[in-house]
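User: tokens in, sequence out, please.
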């Protein structure tokens, strides 16, 4: 046992000599050795039906069987992830996450608190500059747009836009896929509804979105239950406001029982970028870096694409001809994304501040 510990320490120490960006096969080999010596990677908030993560995690395990993947709280929101880092600063046990997958607005917040460890993956240059921290504290991983997943066994007329959700025929039917006081996905849902009303992105759309959901709640159409595949299938939440990739993978998983249609609304088409980061207190920092190398390789990026996410290196990979045509054909028609809006980080932060602080007072629905 002592020999193994000594080996792990020496490998880790040796890797500290390696550049933060992997620049050669030799460097990657040193990282792999250090990660294998640590023997574990702790993730958080990675449900297997989100963005193809089940297959992505399986691919990492197959490539690195020496590393055990410890998965914490798959249904956690971005705020929950940051709280897990804060709560486990002095804990090197299995409850301390190594890596994070959080909404773009949460990246700078975590960085400002000193919660993130900078690291630049070897494919760094092919990640667009506007979705990464210049020093490598966080970087975009994938994006999608908000859509409506509809159980057509229950809902006979598909809603085609946000305003449709207010119709009496959708009584007790509409749910968010998270708590808008903590979940990035739910915050974006409220923001999108506000944009559909004509408000400008940011605080104005946040306010307008809150007013929309207050009206939805007053009409009896809003269901204060976190929507997911199970609640969609059971009829508890017949319409779920979901990222398109979650809606499409959820539809596939249900396999027609019940039948599900995925609708990208005619307006308020909001694209959301998520980011990856390594905890500054990661118990397994080298395994965390190796995980990032895997995610940002062509193999990892295609794993997300199989889960209907647009990986952040999508344009680079299409230009190099490494994206199989069948994966491109499986995506919704390009026309559905033509009106997509990518709110700036400042706009996202402004909307997030309004939505998280005023949801209780304006909407008054305890989503759980």
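Assistant: Sequence out:
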């Amino acid at each position: 046992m002592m020999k193994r510990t000594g080996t792990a320490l020496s490998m880790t120490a040796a890797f500290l000599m390696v550049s933060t960006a992997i620049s050669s096969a030799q460097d990657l080999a040193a990282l792999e050795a250090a990660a294998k010596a640590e023997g574990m990677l702790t993730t958080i908030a990675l449900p297997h039906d989100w963005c193809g993560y089940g297959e992505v995690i399986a691919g990492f395990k197959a490539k690195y069987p020496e590393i055990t993947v410890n998965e914490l709280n798959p249904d956690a929101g971005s705020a929950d992830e940051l709280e897990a880092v804060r709560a486990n600063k002095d804990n090197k046990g299995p409850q301390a996450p190594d890596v994070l997958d959080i909404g773009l607005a949460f990246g700078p917040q975590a960085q400002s608190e000193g919660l993130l460890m900078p690291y630049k993956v070897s494919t760094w240059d092919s990640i667009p500059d506007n979705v990464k921290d210049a020093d490598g504290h966080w970087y975009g991983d994938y994006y999608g747009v908000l859509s409506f997943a509809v159980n057509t066994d229950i809902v006979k007329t598909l809603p085609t836009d946000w305003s449709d959700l207010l119709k009496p025929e959708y009584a007790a039917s509409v749910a968010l896929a998270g708590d808008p006081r903590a979940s990035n996905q739910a915050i974006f849902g409220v923001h999108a509804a506000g944009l559909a009303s004509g408000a400008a992105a940011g605080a104005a759309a946040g306010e307008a979105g809150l007013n929309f959901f207050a009206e939805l709640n007053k009409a009896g159409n809003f269901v204060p239950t976190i929507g997911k595949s199970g609640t969609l299938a059971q009829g508890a939440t017949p319409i779920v406001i979901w990222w398109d990739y979650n809606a499409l993978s959820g539809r596939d998983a249900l396999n027609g029982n019940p039948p599900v249609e995925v609708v990208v609304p005619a307006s308020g088409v909001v694209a959301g970028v998520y980011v990856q980061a390594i905890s500054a207190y990661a118990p397994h920092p080298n395994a965390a870096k190796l995980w990032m190398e895997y995610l940002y390789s062509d193999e990892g990026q295609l794993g997300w694409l199989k889960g209907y996410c647009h990986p952040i290196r999508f344009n680079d990979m299409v230009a190099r001809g490494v994206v199989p045509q069948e994966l491109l054909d499986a995506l919704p028609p390009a026309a559905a994304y033509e009106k997509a809006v990518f709110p700036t980080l400042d706009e996202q932060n402004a909307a997030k501040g309004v939505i998280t602080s005023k949801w209780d007072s304006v909407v008054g629905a305890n989503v759980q």
